[in-house]
Amino acid sequence: MSKQTVYFDYAATAPMRPEALAAMTSELAVVGNASSLHASGRRARRVVEESRESIASVLNVKPRDVVFTSGGTEADNLAIKGIYSMRRLVNPSLRRILTSPIEHHAVLDPVESLGETRKAEVRYLSADNVGRVDLDWLKTELERGSEVISLVAVMWANNEVGTIQRVAEISELCAGFKIPFHCDAVQAVGQLPVDASLVDSLALSGHKVGGPIGVGALVLRPGVNPIPLLHGGGQERDIRSGTLDTPAIAGLAAAIVAANGDMAERTTRVRKLRDDLVKRVMATITDVKRNGDPDDSLPGIANLSFEGCEGDALLLLLDAAGIECSRGSACTAGVPQPSHVLLAMGLDPQTARSSLRFSLGMNSTQADVDRLIEVLPDIVARARRAGTPRA
Ligand code: PLP
């Protein structure tokens, strides 16, 4: 990111927080495998366990409940595949998975893969036009099928539009039928108070919270024991083998603690900037639609559709002007298809393709928003002249 670059892609990856950088780099300078019994190993183990304690304390769970992984994708895969396999081992008729159509691919794809390879029967809950999952639908599904449902997977907050789900209510519904509830909280941790004790299983990721890329965690309620994806040295209570990445884990813990410490002040500031961005874009450009829940969403996300534009064209013109944003999920960027999240919210494919996600965070400034407002009207006009998206 050069000095002049305006970075509006925090939901894709956030810059490292100084606290995380310091914790990680000091660990990178020393040797030690946390499984070794000698002094260097014990020192590394201490760092890992202190990190586990800090993360557990922020998330209101016990240190033992935190299983370190290589990121959000692995945590989601381990939860979904592992819980499904464990449940079916105990009772082979538990083949149904309930999930929502607005999940990240880190949830949707393992669910679909279980459908293809392990006979899972997948049911998608409906989402409304702001991206909130229909709880009446969930309740009906649970009432009708509790004897065949393996697990429920619904995210805490959406990465494309920012809409926050009613996690406590989902949790209560699932608990009423004793069905495990996995929650992808990758975008929520660090942005909202997240009480992981509400759910049976929760995924988080380092690089969305100001920690390093390539580390994350799965938080598991006691008694939820997914069948491992990775077998080997038996680290992480045999649930996730692999030598622990002590520097990354130290960076992850430092980021989560720091993000929790300044959450109120930071998110108030970021929300104000985001609201200013939305208001001024709407005031200066015609035919713009805001996607997601305007009242209950992540503080830093603004997803906007620009009628008559191709989202990719807008993105590239903005990039040429030094402004970096995204067309929804960065993981699917480059694939010229409308976002599955926006389609599930009822947008038509053309409107979905004309959408951009601006995501703000810790280092975002008023000058960033001002710069966007300076260049965007002309860029939208140019994109509109270039033509509407293909259906
Ligand atoms: N879940 C959500 C909601 C995400 O936004 C992402 C990343 O974009 C992931 C999961 C995957 O996390 P990671 O990049 O750590 O694998």
Reconstruct the topology from this structure.
Layout: E1 6-7, H1 18-28, H2 39-59, E2 66-69, H3 72-90, E3 96-99, H4 105-117, E4 121-124, H5 135-145, E5 149-153, H6 167-176, E6 181-184, E7 201-205, E8 216-220, H7 246-261, H8 263-284, E9 288-291, E10 301-306, H9 311-320, E11 323-324, H10 340-344, H11 349-353, E12 355-359, H12 366-386
Helix pairs in contact: 1-7, 2-7, 3-4, 5-6, 8-12, 9-12
Bound molecules: pyridoxal-5'-phosphate.
Question: How would you explain this protein's 3D organization?
Answer:
- This protein is of the alpha/beta class and 391 residues long.
- It folds into two domains: 18-261, Type I PLP-dependent aspartate aminotransferase-like (Major domain) (Aspartate Aminotransferase, domain 2, 3-Layer(aba) Sandwich), CATH 3.40.640; 263-386, Alpha-Beta Complex (Aspartate Aminotransferase, domain 1), CATH 3.90.1150.
- The protein is 42% helix and 13% strand.
- It is built from twelve helices and twelve strands.
- The chain has helices at residues 18-28, 39-59, 72-90, 105-117, 135-145, 167-176, 246-261, 263-284, 311-320, 340-344, 349-353, 366-386, and strands at residues 6-7, 66-69, 96-99, 121-124, 149-153, 181-184, 201-205, 216-220, 288-291, 301-306, 323-324, 355-359.
- The strands form three sheets. A seven-stranded mixed beta sheet has the order 2-8-7-6-5-3-4, with helices on both faces. A three-stranded antiparallel beta sheet has the order 9-10-12. A two-stranded parallel ribbon has the order 1-11.
- Helix 6 (167-176) links the parallel strand 5 (149-153) and strand 6.
- Helix 2 packs parallel to helix 7 and helix 9 packs across helix 12.
- The longest helix is centred in the C-terminal third of the chain and has 22 residues, at 263-284.
- The protein binds pyridoxal-5'-phosphate (PLP).
- Pyridoxal-5'-phosphate (PLP) binds at residues 71-73, 76, 104, 106, 155, 159, 184, 186-187, 205, 216, 329, 331.
